[in-house]
Amino acid sequence: MQLAGKKIVLAVTGSIAAYKTPHLVRLLVKAGAEVRVITTSAAEAFVSPLALATVSKHSVHSNVADGAAWNNHVEMGRWADAMLIAPCSANTLAKMANGLCDNLVCAVYLSAICPVFVAPAMDEDMWHHQSTVNNIQKIRSYGNHIIPVTHGELASGLIGEGRMAEPEDIVAHLNDFFEKKNDSPLKGIKALVTAGPTYERIDPVRFIGNFSTGKMGVAIAEALADKGAQVTLVLGPSHLQVFHANIKVVKVESAEQMYNACMEAFPQSQISVLSAAVADYRPAEMAPEKIKKQGNTLDIELVKNKDILATLGGLKQAGQLLVGFALETNDELNHALGKMKAKNADMIVLNSLKDTGAGFGHDTNKVTLLDSTGDKKDLPLQSKQKVAEVIVKHILKLRNAEKTI
Ligand code: CTP
């Protein structure tokens, strides 16, 4: 258990899910953690401070000052290896998003220099309200970790999203975090990842694009960042939001912009994974005004975009590892091997559009990994996150092999 010896501040706020927190404390203590509990006054209506004090074996505080005694929130925020806010009510969430500080929980939160985990709990309509959605995004952008709500029966009697994750899952989430933190083989390594489509403008309102969503590339950036790498993610037009302390997102629109961003980041990057679906051609000229409907046909002259992967393959130095993708619909293996050689990549991730559940837009993918040592690995259909983890594992293997040569 990674939680052994870890110091956790648990902040309990006003939600019916607070009744589960004595059990949560027990699980954390059982895993070897030292737990200090603080509450908001609203939480006390749902769970007894005495129960929390008994299971945590420490007194429970809810005020910045108890009589003449001051509860040092700064000290608590610095003492903790992690702060866990569970359940986190819509009210506390809104305060966290806006830096309000009218109680002990908010004061400790603002003073915390450790990772903060938030397990929201509220009714479905509150959970989906635009202000809650914005607040979650905001606190994510501050680097807080959100433990996803679950679907099920709510206090209102409605069935839907908004239930706090079960205590067992919250503990597993914290455990995973500390496990990953101890497992950072890419600490100090810089990585470049491209993701998403590119849009090539025809006129001010139209473009040539493709159906890529960026999900696979974002998952790869996150998997590299989870292993400690500092990632520059060059992302084409995509609705995906990326919040990870180790990822810097550079948003681009066209292939040319993606090329320029890559040329800037590549020299410093020991690992580069080019998963973007780059448009091969762009209009020779963008019309300055909207093209009017005239004849029965319309010709647009296209010119070739620079191939980013091939360019980086030509610039690659010893110690730099380059991974490309190949999206194929026929004679997949030969085309993919041909691309690896022609573009001087060390590894190619082959995506066949023939496989159901694979490719653009899906949450799953089915790929084959090919590398320049001749290794070939067929992976099963699985989530893009899992695929990303296996790709990163293979990258680690190639890096280690290179070191031993
Ligand atoms: N790629 C790139 N720059 C381009 C085109 C492709 O960096 N202008 C990269 C992709 O990100 C991917 C790899 O090259 O990693 C292969 O892309 P793919 O579209 O499968 O192949 P193409 O080389 O474009 O060839 P074709 O479209 O003829 O299959």
List the helices and strands and how they pair.
Blueprint: E1 7-12, H1 21-30, E2 34-39, H2 49-56, E3 65-66, E4 69-70, H3 73-79, E5 82-88, H4 90-98, H5 104-111, E6 116-120, H6 124-128, H7 130-141, E7 145-146, E8 150-153, E9 159-163, H8 167-182, E10 190-195, E11 200-203, E12 206-208, H9 215-226, E13 230-235, E14 247-251, H10 255-265, E15 271-274, E16 281-283, E17 302-304, H11 308-315, E18 321-328, H12 332-342, E19 347-352, E20 364-365, E21 367-371, E22 376-378, E23 382-383, H13 384-404
Parallel strand pairs: 1-2, 1-5, 5-6, 6-7, 10-13, 10-15, 13-14, 15-18, 18-19
Antiparallel strand pairs: 3-4, 8-9, 11-12, 16-17, 19-21, 20-23, 21-22
Helix pairs in contact: 1-2, 1-8, 3-5, 4-7, 9-13
Bound molecules: cytidine-5'-triphosphate.
Describe this structure in words.
- There is one protein chain.
- With 405 residues, this protein is of the alpha/beta class.
- The protein folds into two domains: 175 residues, Rossmann fold; 221 residues, CoaB-like (Rossmann fold), CATH 3.40.50.10300.
- It is 34% helix and 24% strand.
- The chain is built from 13 helices and 23 strands.
- The protein has an eight-stranded mixed sheet, sandwiched between helices.
- A hairpin with a 2-residue loop joins strand 11 and strand 12.
- The protein is elongated and about 80 Å long.
- The relative contact order is 0.09.
- The structure holds cytidine-5'-triphosphate.
